[in-house]
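Each record in this resource describes a single protein on a pair of labelled lines. The shape at a given residue is found from the number at the same position. The record below illustrates this layout:

***
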Amino acid sequence: MNPMNLFLFGGLGLLVGLWHFGSLRWLSQRLVSTPRPRWGIALAVQLLRIAVLVGACWWAVRFGAWPLLALALGMVAARVVLLRQARRAEAGEVQP
């Protein structure tokens, strides 16, 4: 396995993870804050989130198990970053 591929898939995992978990946060906030949420848009965003995630995983697994693991690690890193950001915002700290 080419180490450059692992960095590529790790970076892809980070980007997909940031988008996946960021859109989940956006969708959740929108559903909670809107008195009459548009369920069609919510469903479309949810399906798009899942489709992008499945597509990225499918593409990574075509290169083997290590790229899939690198993609997963990138997504976990993105989740950690976004959770830390959300906790800071909830605590009232200023975000950079």
